[in-house]
Structures are given as structure tokens and as C-alpha cells.
Design a protein that fits this description.
Elements: E1 2-15, E2 19-26, E3 30-36, H1 42-45, E4 53-59, E5 67-75, H2 85-101, H3 109-122, H4 127-141, E6 153-157, E7 160-166, E8 171-174, H5 176-180, H6 188-207, H7 216-226
Parallel strand pairs: 3-5
Antiparallel strand pairs: 1-2, 1-4, 2-3, 4-5, 6-7, 7-8
Helix pairs in contact: 2-7, 3-4, 4-6, 6-7
Length: 227
């Protein structure tokens, strides 16, 4: 099997002395993995950064074995944020989410497109507001539509409208902007609570039932934005 495509680097792991096994999310082939020979050479490793966009040539003699990848850098993205700890941590967390939540060799052009959208809003001042809605869109694209307005109740306390969901032993308040889908004039506590809400949903509805631990990269990101 031989094909060419473009894709974003999701992960990389050392393989032998001079090679790595890399995962990409590609435009036409979805998430794929393969061996890159010579990837530890200075020429290649400098641009093999998680999140960068590549042109990929894939070659596999057997569908049951790992393919081999020849890559060329198409767009340098992640190094643009090397001097911003929070945004760099966000990139690693977001690419890892796509790695965890997508199925290998199953194409989804909309997921490929929202990776490009991710870098568009990352350059903006209120990027973290947009991130929450981006994560909700990612969940929707993989089949988990967290349509909060259909499951929340509301109450008025001190003339303020509050949204909540309740179970037999818990009452959890939901940040208003997530229900009303308004990402303007949001204070940090609301943003952080929104991100934690998504983390809880990931654990209870997706990761936990599949015996997947909560990704360290996301925990690190949440800790970083609290600093």
C-alpha cells in the first residue's frame, strides 16, 4: 500500500537507535502510524515537533504490519509558541486528546479541519475561551455531543441565573457560558471550571469505561493555566 497525504504529528516514540514510531492525523486517511527511519538525526528531529504539519508518503508491504513514512515539513506551527508555556502545554494536551479519541485508519475530514482551526484561535488573546468550545466540537465529531442545554436545570439565586445537573447524590453547577454558548466576558474561574467539567465528562463517559487513564498532558495543562 502506497499513498501520499498531509497530516499533523500527534505523537512520537523512539524505535531502535535512530528511528521513531510516529502517529499523524491525516486529511484523507485519518489517524495513521508508521516508522520514520533516521528521525533522530539533527536535520529531521528539529522539525519533528508535536502539532507540526507534514507532507507524508506512506509505504507498507503488508496491511498487518507497521508502514514506513517519508515526511517533509509543510507548515511549522508548534515552534511559534515555544516562548509561551501555557499555549505550548495546550498544544501537547490537544494533540494527545485527538490521539486518544480517534480510531486508526478512519478518516474524518472535519477532525482534520478543526486541527487547523485550533491554530487559528491559538494566536488570539482570548484563545482559552475558544479552546473549550473547540473541545466540545471535537467530542461531538467523535460521537459524544455534550448538549448541555438539554440536560441542565436552572435556578435563580441572588438575582443570578444558575445552571446545574443533579443526580441522586450530587448537584453540579455548570458555567453559564457553556449552556448559553457565549465566549465573551468570561472570568478565569468560569473558564477553568468549564475545562474541569470536560475532564470529568471524559473520565466518566469515554476514558474510564475503556480503562484509559486521564492523560497526563491534560493534567499538566490545567496545572499550567492555574499558575
Amino acid at each position: 500500500m502506497i499513498w501520499s497525504d498531509t497530516g499533523y504529528l500527534l505523537s512520537k516514540n523512539k524505535f531502535g537507535e535512530n528511528s521513531i514510531i510516529a502517529e499523524f492525523y491525516c486529511k484523507n486517511h485519518g489517524k495513521i502510524s508508521g516508522v520514520i527511519y533516521g528521525a533522530t538525526s539533527k536535520k529531521i528531529r528539529n522539525y519533528l515537533q508535536i502539532g507540526n504539519k507534514f507532507h507524508i508518503n506512506y509505504n507498507s508491504k503488508n496491511e498487518n504490519k507497521a508502514g514506513y513514512l517519508n515526511i517533509e515539513i509543510e507548515k511549522i506551527l508548534t515552534p511559534l509558541f515555544f516562548d509561551n508555556k501555557k499555549k505550548l502545554s495546550c498544544i501537547l494536551s490537544s494533540m494527545n486528546l485527538i490521539k486518544l479519541l480517534t480510531v486508526e485508519n478512519q478518516s474524518n475530514i472535519d477532525i482534520y479541519k478543526i486541527i487547523g482551526d485550533f491554530y487559528n484561535f491559538l494566536e488570539k488573546k482570548d484563545w482559552i475561551n475558544s479552546l473549550i468550545f473547540w473541545e466540545l466540537e471535537l467530542l461531538k465529531l467523535i460521537g459524544y455531543d455534550l448538549e448541555l442545554k438539554n440536560i441542565v436545570n436552572q435556578e435563580i439565586i441572588d438575582n443570578k441565573k444558575l445552571y446545574f445537573v443533579s443526580s441522586s447524590n450530587e448537584k453540579k453547577y455548570i458555567p453559564n457560558f457553556l449552556v448559553e454558548k457565549n465566549n465573551e466576558n468570561i472570568d478565569f474561574n468560569q473558564i477553568f471550571n468549564g475545562l474541569k467539567l470536560i475532564s470529568d465528562y471524559l473520565d466518566k463517559s469515554i476514558l474510564g469505561p475503556n480503562n484509559i487513564s486521564h492523560p497526563k498532558s491534560r493534567i499538566d495543562f490545567l496545572n499550567t493555566i492555574k499558575e
